[in-house]
Design brief:
Keywords: Carbohydrate metabolism, Glucose metabolism, NADP, Oxidoreductase
Function: Catalyzes the oxidation of glucose 6-phosphate to 6-phosphogluconolactone.
Number of domains: 2
CATH superfamily of the largest domain: Dihydrodipicolinate Reductase, domain 2
Order of helices and strands: EHEHHEHEHEHEHEHHEEEHEEEEEEHHE
Number of helices: 12
CATH architecture of the largest domain: 2-Layer Sandwich
Strand content: 15-25%
Pfam family, one: G6PD_N
Largest sheet: 9 strands, mixed
Strand order of the largest sheet: 16-15-14-13-7-12-11-8-17
Radius of gyration: 24 Å
GO molecular function: glucose-6-phosphate dehydrogenase activity; NADP binding
Protein name: Glucose-6-phosphate 1-dehydrogenase
Shape: globular
CATH class of the largest domain: Alpha Beta
């Protein structure tokens, strides 16, 4: 059911950047076409250069033309383009924020409920908020004011806490919306509902029945032209600290008292704070890292390409050595009664044999074992590229003999006629609605950094050569060092047989 949205102005900082052009502006147009934007809603794009409103509207039209190749509804376009305004905010102008305040003060044009989307460099988050506060643009004495902070929120626990200190000089926690665009994905939101809206799953969702859980994000792509950024970040901070730990929280948290943002957040925080710290003195049993080397990556159409290795890509930018991981895997335990003793394996990698994001749950051995090594049941919740739920069960082979085979029950989440909603569309709508349930509370951010920081530091100190895996290959065999038992292994595919190595 659609929530009522107050008349508001969405202020987009960094409006001429790629995120705005490719995701935000087309996403807002789709929300308008779906009738989800309030009648009195205005978009004010803030950029560095001087651009007239007419030229900016022409630029917006170009963004929509590039995104919607098959055209779009002209009536919706006319309504949408009329919402769009532009404001120049050159960094060299000391009076820029006063000019922005003067512009926004025209209540006949701009509704005074203000939502700011900061699609800017992380170093600009705190200064922009301070400047907005100086001219009264985050004051909530008469209207609501919300600020969306793009990822990353800090680069470790101290920097995240320092950023929080700066922001809370001017903002209440309820005004801060820390985005993790993964949480806007419909298939990820479905994790919680799959658990709690089905009587057949929740009774089995514990250490009595589950052997282990795998949370995977693999890509066939390399680091591309982001070599300098990536080498300073690595897979652990880029993916595990944010997206995959949030996924784990949704998989493992207790049932919230209701679906209110406060209840959902409370259970996620409780879960993240229950993850056992990784023992650095036994790090090689709990964490594994590697880098891709030259290899061949196969495309979905059967074609492939030979690609260079990570260190060769760095060398082109003058970086001669690196221990930064492009493959990271962690073994995590949750210290609560539900999950006592159940390992959660979290992995992410670039240049793998396939690109996929999935949650795979292996159940314990069945009470009846007909043959040694009998297949164990799996439940897979696939996030992307295909949104689906798969169950693998044993069923009798028709005939005179007593024997079973594994069947895969495939439930596509997306069906013909369903809305296709981009994660940013969902999150922008939540921002305007005032629903922070899919945004990160500072306690979640701190718990996530607290968990990964010791591993990041230990890996940075250890300069020994990092294991190399061929681009286009499956998980390095050496990564099995983190498994709790010899019969555990990485699923390499969600398809039937994907548990066979």
């Amino acid at each position: 059911m659609a929530k009522k949205i107050d008349p508001c102005t969405l202020v987009l900082f960094g409006a001429s950047g790629n995120l705005s052009r490719i995701k935000l502006m087309p996403g807002l147009f789709r929300l308008d076409a779906a009738g989800r934007l309030p009648e009195h809603m205005v978009i004010l794009s803030v950029g560095r250069g001087e651009v007239s409103r007419e030229d900016w509207q022409a630029d917006v039209k170009g963004m929509l033309d590039a995104k919607f190749k098959n055209g779009y509804d002209q009536k919706v376009f006319e309504r949408f383009i009329a919402r769009n305004h532009y404001h120049s905010n050159p960094p060299t102008d000391p009076d820029a924020m006063n000019k922005l305040q003067a512009k926004l003060s025209d209540e006949s044009v701009f509704p005074q409920n203000l939502a700011y989307f900061l699609s800017v460099r992380p170093t600009d988050f705190a200064p922009i908020v301070a400047q907005l506060a100086e001219v009264g643009l985050v004051d909530e004495s008469k209207y609501w004011r919300r600020v969306l902070i793009e990822k990353p929120f800090g680069t470790d626990l101290p920097s995240a806490q320092a950023l929080q200190t700066e922001l809370t000089k001017y903002l209440k926690e309820s005004q801060i919306y820390r985005i993790d665009h993964y949480l806007g994905k419909s298939a990820l939101q479905n994790v919680m509902l799959t658990r709690f809206a089905n009587a057949m799953f929740e009774p089995l969702w514990n250490n009595e029945h589950i052997d282990h859980v795998q949370i995977t994000n693999n890509e066939t792509l390399g680091v591309g032209d982001r070599t300098t950024f990536y080498d300073a970040t690595g897979a652990l901070r880029d993916m595990v600290q944010s997206h995959l730990l949030q996924t784990l929280a949704l998989v493992a948290m207790e049932k919230p008292t209701d679906l209110s943002p406060e209840s959902i957040r409370a259970e996620k925080i409780k879960l993240l704070e229950s993850i056992r710290p990784i023992p650095v003195n036994e790090l090689n049993k709990h964490a594994f890292r590697a880098q891709y080397k030259a290899g061949r990556v196969e495309a979905g159409d059967g074609h492939g390409e030979n690609v260079t290795g990570y260190l060769e890509e760095l060398a082109r930018d003058g970086i001669t050595e690196s221990v930064t991981e492009t493959y990271a895997a962690l073994k995590l335990f949750i210290d609560n009664p539900r999950w006592k003793g159940v390992p959660f394996y979290v992995r992410t990698a670039k240049r793998m044999h396939e690109g996929n994001t999935a949650i795979s749950i292996r159940f314990k051995k069945a009470p009846m074992q007909l043959v040694e090594g009998q297949h164990q049941n799996w439940l897979t919740l696939n996030i992307q590229p295909r949104e689906c739920i798969k169950m693998e069960i044993e069923s009798k082979i028709p005939g005179l003999d007593i024997a079973t085979r594994t069947l895969s029950i495939d439930g596509p989440q997306r069906q013909q006629g369903d809305e296709t909603i981009d994660s940013y569309e969902s999150l922008m709508l939540n921002l305007m609605e005032g629903d922070p349930s899919l945004y990160l509370h500072i306690s979640e951010v701190e718990a996530q950094w607290r968990l990964v920081d010791p591993v990041v530091k230990a890996w940075m100190v250890d300069k020994s050569p990092v294991h190399q895996y061929p681009a286009g290959s499956r998980d390095p065999q050496e990564s099995s060092v983190i498994f709790e038992s010899e019969d555990q292994f990485w699923r390499y595919s969600i398809e039937l047989g994907g548990d066979k190595h």
